[in-house]
Design goal:
single chain, 373 residues, alpha/beta, Rossmann fold, 2 domains, seven-stranded parallel beta sheet, six-stranded parallel beta sheet, 13 helices
Length: 373
């Protein structure tokens, strides 16, 4: 088969969730499948993080904006390739695609009522684009993949799809996340002291940054250790505005906020942390919580959306809308060494159930169902 995989954003420097999922999946497919011929269609960027192999070809497609790239440049490229299957990997796809189309629909958060203000213009425009495109392309998809059973059921109910049309394929986990990844020189680029609490936030309301800061303020009042909080992906002006609005400016001296953290540095930052905070309001999967677990770090996470499905019943699940509950879980980890060690063991065991090889095998099964007769 000739399989075209849309991977528009994997060469950009500041990669996030969906970009990393498609990148790791393709790398696993390269190790697994030597028979089919793949065309990985990307937008040129400064991080050339994927190499060609005998049956994996990189196709660079130039275009200025995401919508024009997907709706004009991508179809023109596909017309030249003439694939047996097109896999679009990040929620959207061309409105016109004359080839069999498979879509990974990670979530439909963009169709839901916003839980707060989106500060980023990029986020707002992306939401508008997805809300317009996705309902119009679903009838063209021969197969829809999503990343958790929670999301599958939610998509089926919301969009009234045929249950046979959408299947769950879990995300995997990079073996690079493990307790041996220790390097003080890397950690020191972001925070001068260890251990610390670690939070991956951003301006998307679903990440629950505001309640996380409230919980941290409560933690500081009750803790004997008063560990600092390392905050990724939030710039100082955004943090200042949140703290001022909630009268939490007194906690700022305990915060470190280096902005974007390179994915290659994350394993070291997980292993140096005392605990990882992931009290998200809405996740279709929740890959960072598995990364932290695999690194031997207890996770204080949420009982919402797909998180319990991924984290499992033994995880420290809290109400993400209750800062007191989040703070209580952190204090419990500090004051109860037996609980702490039990969470480390549980997390390592839970994370071992996920791998990108398994993800690639499941996807390959779906690809082969498109085999021409």
């Amino acid at each position: 088969m000739k399989i075209a995989i849309e991977a528009q954003r994997i060469f950009r420097r500041d990669k996030h969730g969906m970009d990393l999922v498609v990148l790791e999946t393709i790398r696993a497919l390269q190790q697994l499948d030597r028979s089919n011929e793949y065309f990985i269609i990307v937008k040129p960027g400064e991080d050339c993080c994927l190499q060609e192999t005998a049956n994996f070809h990189l196709v660079e497609v130039h275009c200025s904006t995401y919508p024009l790239w997907e709706q004009v440049a991508l179809p023109l490229s596909l017309k030249r390739i003439k694939p047996d299957l097109v896999h679009c990997t990040s929620n959207t796809a061309p409105l016109y695609c004359p080839f069999p189309l498979m879509l990974t629909l990670h979530d439909i958060i963009f169709l839901e009522k916003k839980s707060g203000e989106m500060r980023s213009l990029y986020q707002r425009l992306g939401r508008i684009y997805r809300r317009w495109v996705v309902p119009r392309i679903l009838s063209n998809c021969k197969r829809i993949i999503t990343v958790s059973d929670y999301e599958r059921i939610h998509i089926l109910k919301t969009l009234s799809l045929d249950p046979k049309a959408i299947q769950t394929v879990y995300n995997g986990l990079d073996s690079g996340f493990n307790p041996s990844r220790k390097d003080r020189s890397i950690v020191g680029k972001y925070i001068p002291e260890e251990p610390y609490l670690f939070f991956l936030g951003n301006t998307d309301p679903k990440k629950n940054s505001l309640n996380t800061f409230k919980a941290y303020g409560l933690y500081l009042r009750k803790s004997q250790r008063k560990l600092p909080l390392l905050v990724a992906d939030l710039e100082e002006p955004v943090i200042d505005a949140m703290l001022a609005r909630e009268k939490l400016t007194d906690i700022k001296s305990h915060l470190y906020f280096p902005g974007y953290i390179a994915n290659s540095d994350l394993p070291y930052l997980y292993t140096a942390a005392f605990a990882f905070l992931y009290p998200s309001l809405r996740e279709s999967f929740g890959l960072p919580l598995l990364e932290a677990m695999a690194s031997g770090v207890p996770v204080v996470t949420s009982n919402a959306a797909a998180i319990p499905e991924v984290a499992g019943t033994g995880a420290l699940l809290t109400d993400p809308a209750d800062p007191e509950a989040i703070a209580h879980a952190l204090i419990a980890l500090e004051e109860n060494p037996a609980l702490y060690e039990a969470q480390v063991r549980y997390g390592l065991n839970r994370a071992s159930a996920f791998s990108w090889e398994d993800t690639a095998r499941r996807l390959l099964e779906h690809y082969q169902s498109f085999m021409p007769v």
